[in-house]
Design brief:
- The complex is a heterodimer.
- By secondary structure, chain A is mainly α.
- Chain A is 73% helix and 0% strand.
- In chain A, helix 1 packs across helix 2 and helix 9 crosses helix 10.
- By secondary structure, chain B is mostly helical.
- Chain B contains 6 helices and no strands.
- In chain B, helix 1 packs across helix 2, helix 1 runs parallel beside helix 3 and helix 2 crosses helix 3.
- Chain B is elongated.
- About 12% of the residues of chain B have low confidence.
- Classes of the chains: A mainly alpha, B mainly alpha.
- At the A-B interface, helix 1, helix 2, helix 3, helix 7 and helix 8 of A face helix 1, helix 3, helix 4, helix 5 and helix 6 of B.
Chain lengths: 186, 138
């Protein structure tokens, strides 16, 4: 049996169907939560934002025109909410976060142990990327968004999407190198 | 094995590797990348690095957990409050929606090579046109 498409669900939501809203929420809330939590780095904030994101979906369903996938549209709303929340944070908190993000992995005493496990180290370096770079890596690798879809979500030209992804990967390679993993690229 | 002779062309192909690994390229670009990978060992080695990043990014995200049930409760409480304040107008007979649902039960061929193109569902488009006509009364 074929599942009801997201687009049909949005049509029902536009007509005030709460059940359709529940189905859409169940289908997407985990991924949207993970996208937001990677941006705001705080689970409680991310959880609050998830409710706001899907409330916007409820309110705006009637205006959805189907020019992109529903998941792309929802992620774009989530991104906007996450960035607004980040702007509302006190400066000190942001500074602390930035410092954490650019911390040299080699300073961490645990790193010497983790070197034995390349996978762990790659994941650690992925968390050390800037918000901009984390976002594009997540959208491409985890959320399976095409170049066109990332451009829509982030609001940048398609060529910039490719360039940003290249620099995100380059930065990741640099972090890995600093942590003792030489990949021979770039 | 022949390496890609032109460096700019290799650069273009290399930029597409993350999307190739994620399976989100259109048919034309997929063919270009696969052809290049088959003839360029260095590019194939770099593709292995991309696949490694892809696997770890998925692993990392999968460890992030999920929101609690409170998020959903809060959402529906907000929806209920909003509906109580100003109930949205429901159509008594949503012809456009019903036609869209009927049409969406069929699988249409992907009209153009882009993967994202499959998201431009014809039924929604048709539904929107019909709904606009119904609203305008024409």
């Amino acid at each position: 049996m074929q599942a009801t498409s997201d687009e049909v669900l949005i049509g029902r939501i536009a007509n005030g169907d709460r059940l359709a809203m529940q189905v859409l929420y169940a289908r997407h809330h985990v991924r949207v939560f993970r996208f937001v939590v990677r941006l705001v780095r705080d689970e409680a904030t991310a959880e609050d934002l998830i409710s706001e994101v899907f409330l916007d979906v409820w309110r705006q369903a009637g205006r959805f025109e189907g020019r992109s996938a529903v998941s792309t549209w929802v992620l774009a709303i989530a991104r906007f909410k996450a960035l607004s929340a980040l702007r509302r944070r006190p400066d000190e908190e942001l500074d602390e976060e930035t410092a954490g993000a650019i911390e040299d992995p080699s300073d961490d005493p645990e790193v010497s142990l983790e070197k034995k496990d390349k996978s762990v180290l790659i994941r650690k370096c992925l968390t050390g990327l800037s918000a901009e770079h984390r976002e594009i890596i997540d959208l491409v690798y985890y959320h399976e968004k095409s170049v066109e879809e990332v451009a829509l979500i982030v609001g940048i030209p398609e060529n910039t999407v490719k360039t940003r992804m290249f620099y995100a990967r380059k930065k990741l390679a640099e972090l890995l190198k600093a942590a003792g993993i030489e990949r021979g690229w770039p | 094995m022949n390496m890609i002779s032109k460096e700019p062309e290799r650069h273009d192909i290399e930029a597409l590797l993350p999307w190739h690994a994620a399976g989100t390229l259109n048919r034309r670009d997929t063919d270009r990348v696969e052809q290049a990978l088959a003839g360029d060992r260095e590019l194939a080695r770099r593709y292995d690095l991309v696949r490694e990043e892809l696997a770890e990014t998925i692993h990392l995200n999968e460890t992030l957990g999920a929101p609690s049930a409170r998020a959903m409760e809060r959402l529906f409480a907000a929806i209920d409050a909003e509906e109580a304040r100003s109930p949205r107008r429901r159509r008594s007979f949503d012809l456009g929606g019903r036609i869209a649902e009927f049409l969406s039960s069929f699988r249409f061929p992907i009209p153009i090579e882009s993967r994202s193109a499959r998201h431009y569902h014809y039924p929604v488009y048709i539904r929107l046109q019909i709904e606009r006509k119904l609203q305008s009364g024409s």
